[in-house]
Write a structure and sequence with these properties.
The chain is mainly alpha-helical and 524 residues long. It is built from 24 helices and 5 strands. A 5-stranded parallel beta sheet has the order 3-2-1-4-5, with helices on both faces. The longest helix has 19 residues. It comes from Symbiochloris irregularis.
DNA sequence: TGTGCGTTGATTCG
DNA sequence: CGAATCAACGCACA
């Protein structure tokens, strides 16, 4: 049988050659294969992506290109809106089949729907595959009696009724079909992975984590080396103050699909079987993978999951609109070293420990500043190399006690929480060198240090390092009362609606616009 | 309608 | 260092 046809493999997430069913389908029985990634302006129109995050993506693309090249292919990187670009290239290149991995994020659903329609008109066959999550969110809902599981437990009971997650499919073949040699515009349009400078970045990336399937697989192997550690893993017992991460840091690779969740899962289950005794969800490593699938599932089925307004799961809360407090948090100058050090770690590394994220998220919202979780979500989305739509939004609602979690009286202290893990404040001193000579005794509350101690440490509070922007002891108590009132109000649909109607989204937008205004001021 | 539980709080007491 | 207490939420299930 002679091979005919030309397929286009569209990479979005799933930046890998292992466990990639769309790739296997695209490479099957065709004469030529066009592996494509689109740099879609949609993802940086709302806010500029942090340099670490965009670099992680570019590194992942470069790695993908290398791996494809080793198999006689290459990665074609296109610039622009895929809804415009793809129809053009499949016409130019004579593409007969379009293959990609399903993406359930709201923007992706809309985009892919539209592209599906365009493909139909152009008589391009479309084949899609579910391989980003362990379970299909649609199937999970079915298994739960047609209702969306809104708690982890409900999710667990739903998936317990389902077949286990599919095993990873076989790796990409050693030889892939080539790109058609004279495909019109293939070389001009697809100019390889862009440099940071080309897309307007002048700053260098600062993170020590690097993207790509190769790095991902190496990290997976290393993470699973110590099987005893694997089977004893309990997330809450790992330290948020460790300078060498106390967890796997596989999340950025999971976000971009440099690693397959199903591969990770299969390996964990194998080790658990081997060792017999092991920890269990929700705290175990398998439990962590299930959290990811839980948020993907509930997020997919909840309208306006990434908003407070119009989100049926989300408590309607009249958060303060305070650009000054928000910016102090965002830029790591709240005057609470534990909070600021974590925010600096976010800027530098694009990654923080899960409990560190809890600390700063609680602080921004119900704990101290009483600023909307959606602003914190945006900061994380901009700077985290593992920022993942459903997981990020879900966790922000959790920490702000807007959904999933309702014991709002459990507040993280910006002073004592970190102390439990790091009495000497090594973490703080690493990320806030201005405090490096502050005695351990004052490291979590430097404003309490006597003047001569501050002088000796060459760190005057209010000059070299900020005074606290709010007083935690009093503010968190005020907030507790406000949360109690908000919860009471949410019991009444009428009052809930009143809060929604009165919540000024424009005011929230102004907070974001402030940064643009600042830039203008600097130029003047 | 009551009860127990919920991935990861803080403080105090023994 | 573990347990009780603080003040007290919503949800699932009996």
């Amino acid at each position: 049988m002679t091979k005919k046809g030309r397929s286009l493999l569209w990479f979005r997430k799933g930046l890998r050659l292992h466990d990639n069913p769309a790739l296997l389908e695209a490479a099957k029985d065709v004469e030529h294969l066009f592996p494509v990634f689109c740099i879609d302006p949609h993802f940086y129109e709302k806010q500029p992506i942090g340099v670490n995050r965009i670099n992680f993506l570019f590194e992942s693309l470069a790695d993908l290109h290398e791996s494809l090249s080793a198999r006689g292919s290459r990665l074609l990187v296109l610039r622009g809106d895929p809804k415009q670009i793809l129809p053009q290239v499949w016409k130019d290149w004579g593409v007969t089949k379009l293959c990609y991995e399903q993406d359930t994020e709201p923007y992706a659903l809309e985009r892919d729907n539209e592209i599906g329609e365009l493909a139909k008109k152009a008589k391009v066959e479309v084949k899609t595959f579910l391989s980003h999550t362990l379970y299909d969110p649609v199937e999970v809902k079915k298994a739960h009696g047609g209702k969306t599981p809104e708690t982890y437990k409900a999710f667990q009971s739903a998936v317990a009724k389902m077949p286990p997650p599919p095993s990873p499919v076989r790796d990409a073949p050693e030889k892939l079909p080539t790109i058609a040699p004279k495909a019109k515009g293939a070389e001009e349009k697809a100019t390889g992975v862009p440099t940071l400078a080309e897309v307007g970045y002048t700053d260098k990336p600062t993170t020590s984590f690097h993207g790509g399937e190769t790095k991902a697989l190496a990290r997976l192997t290393k993470s699973l080396e110590d099987k005893e550690w694997v089977v004893q893993f309990e997330k809450p017992k790992t330290s948020p103050a460790a300078l060498e991460p106390s967890t796997t840091v596989l999340s950025p690779y999971m976000k971009f699909g440099c690693i397959s969740a199903r591969l990770f899962y299969a390996k964990l289950v194998q080790i658990e079987k081997e060792k017999k005794k092991h920890t269990s969800p929700p705290t175990s490593l398998v439990g962590q993978l299930l959290w990811r699938d839980f948020f993907y599932t509930v997020g997919y089925h909840t309208p306006n999951f990434h908003h407070m307004l119009g989100n049926p799961l989300c408590k309607q809360i009249q958060w303060d609109v305070d650009p000054v407090l928000y910016k102090a948090w965002d830029e790591g100058r709240t005057g609470y070293p534990w909070i600021d050090a974590i925010m600096v770690q976010l800027q530098q590394q694009g990654w923080m420990h899960h409990l560190a994220r809890h600390s700063v998220a609680c602080f921004l919202t119900r704990g101290d500043l009483y600023v909307s979780w959606t602003l914190g979500r945006d900061t994380f989305d901009r700077l985290l190399i593992d920022g993942d739509h459903f997981v990020n939004n879900g966790n922000w609602m959790w920490l702000s006690a807007s959904a999933f979690f309702s014991q709002f009286f459990r507040v993280y202290s910006p002073i004592t929480f970190g102390k439990k893990y790091d009495k000497q404040g090594k973490f703080i001193k690493h990320f806030l060198p201005v405090l490096k000579d502050m005695p351990d005794k004052y490291i979590y509350e430097p404003w309490t240090a006597p003047e001569e101690v501050q002088k000796k440490a060459k760190c005057i509070i209010g000059k070299d390092y900020p005074k606290p922007v709010v007083e935690h002891a009093t503010k968190h108590k005020d907030n507790l009362n406000r949360m109690k009132s908000a919860y009471d109000a949410n019991k009444s649909p009428q009052k809930r609606k009143e809060i929604s109607d009165g919540f000024d989204e424009m005011a929230r937008a102004e907070v974001l616009d402030m940064e643009a205004d600042d830039d203008e001021d600097e130029e003047k």
